[in-house]
């Protein structure tokens, strides 16, 4: 199942595609139930089934004719993992970590498929990072690796666009990762049952203006998804709707000589098997 959040004429809606069929959906004000995906996730499997049943009986939705929003607008936590591919660790000058490198994004940075990533006036070092994200469906604390994948609701794509000079101003990276309109998330959410277990073996590619700049595979993750869930839940309670962004492979602009920064007028596209393509133009902020 694929779930998309969309906007048309100032109204937000949700759409669902079941078993490879076209998207059908409803505006949120027409659902007549707790019709937000976040609310449904918090309500558990029965609430999800009720929501998807209502959406599947809705109107046809052509995703090419509406504005797509991030699948979740206000997750409680957006947890990002750095240096999670050996080749990216090497190009960044780091030894592969023995423990996940964790930092946070805030929902104020989120944009959807088709929205513009904004390069701020204060920096020209805007870099791309194509990543796969997963969304927690069933919360928990101290989750074992063997049970971890039961807690994953679905997967999506993420561009962890980073302002590199701000990222390196402090020993931790949060400030360079949270400029407004730099966290592209989408185009939709794909439930875990439509992908290989643990999203194994997915090709992950980033293109800038049509040129391939990153070409990775989730088999090369240092810390796979069950490991990330186990390690994170040993520290904090994971809640329904929390988003974990799993890391980027080699090829980032900062590691190139000369560096390859995204500039206004560019278009960045991130693709992965089964997850579609997340496409965003680059503009100057302000």
TrEMBL record:
GO molecular function, one term: hydrolase activity
Location of the Fumarylacetoacetase-like C-terminal domain: 77-283
Key words, A-Z: Hydrolase, Metal-binding
Domain of life (superkingdom): Bacteria
Origin species: Rhodoferax koreensis
Cofactor(s) in the UniProt record: Mg(2+)
Any Pfam family hit: FAA_hydrolase
The keyword Metal-binding belongs to this UniProt entry's keyword annotation: yes
Family of the protein in this entry: Belongs to the FAH family.
GO biological process per UniProt: carboxylic acid metabolic process
Protein name as it appears in the record: Fumarylacetoacetate hydrolase
Organism placement in taxonomy: Bacteria, Pseudomonadati, Pseudomonadota, Betaproteobacteria, Burkholderiales
Spans traversing the lipid bilayer: none
């Amino acid at each position: 199942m694929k779930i998309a959040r969309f906007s048309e004429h100032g109204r937000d809606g949700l759409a669902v595609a079941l078993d490879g069929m076209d998207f059908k959906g409803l505006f949120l004000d027409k659902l007549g139930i707790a019709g937000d995906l976040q609310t449904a996730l918090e309500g558990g499997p029965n609430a999800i089934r009720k929501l998807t049943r209502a959406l599947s009986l809705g109107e046809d939705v052509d995703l090419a004719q509406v504005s797509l929003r991030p699948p979740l607008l206000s997750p409680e936590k957006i947890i990002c993992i750095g240096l999670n591919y050996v080749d990216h660790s090497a190009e960044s000058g780091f030894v592969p970590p023995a423990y996940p490198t964790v930092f946070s994004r805030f929902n104020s940075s989120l944009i959807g498929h088709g929205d513009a990533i904004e390069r701020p006036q204060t920096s020209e070092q805007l870099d791309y990072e194509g990543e796969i994200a997963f969304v927690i469906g069933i919360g928990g604390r101290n989750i074992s690796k063997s049970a971890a994948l039961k807690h994953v609701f679905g997967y999506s794509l993420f561009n962890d666009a980073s302002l590199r000079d701000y990222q390196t101003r402090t020993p931790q990276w949060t400030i360079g990762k949270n400029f407004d309109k730099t966290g592209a998330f989408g185009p939709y959410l794909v439930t875990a049952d439509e992908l290989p277990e643990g999203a194994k073996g997915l090709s992950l590619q980033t293109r800038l203006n049509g040129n391939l700049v990153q070409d990775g595979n989730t088999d090369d993750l240092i810390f796979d998804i069950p490991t990330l869930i186990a390690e994170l839940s040993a520290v904090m309670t994971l809640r329904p709707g929390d988003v974990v962004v799993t890391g980027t492979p080699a090829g980032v602009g900062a590691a190139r000589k000369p560096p390859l920064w995204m500039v206004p007028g560019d278009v960045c596209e991130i693709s992965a098997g089964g997850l579609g393509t997340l496409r965003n133009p680059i503009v100057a902020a302000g």
